[in-house]
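Sample entry (96 residues):
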Amino acid sequence: MESQVNAFLSHLSRSQQQLARILEAQRHAAIRAAQIIHSLPSQETPRTTGTRRPEGQAEQVNKSITAYLNAMADFQQTAADNLQVVMKELGGTEEE
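Predicted structure, serialized as tokens:
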């Protein structure tokens, strides 16, 4: 039983490492987009067809940051749920 728990923990660890790498990439993308938006001039630019307004780009950055934070929260919840199962299993094997 202990070997199964160890194998489960190993697989869980690898999957969470991959999730963390994905979230890290999303974080870097959101930070870079925010830097680009911040570097845009703050003055009003004339509207021409086919160009985006800086406010629209800032909204996209905000959505990206929100998506990143939601993914982080989901990641933490998943890690907590999986750890709870492991702790219950380990608690059950110690009593046996």
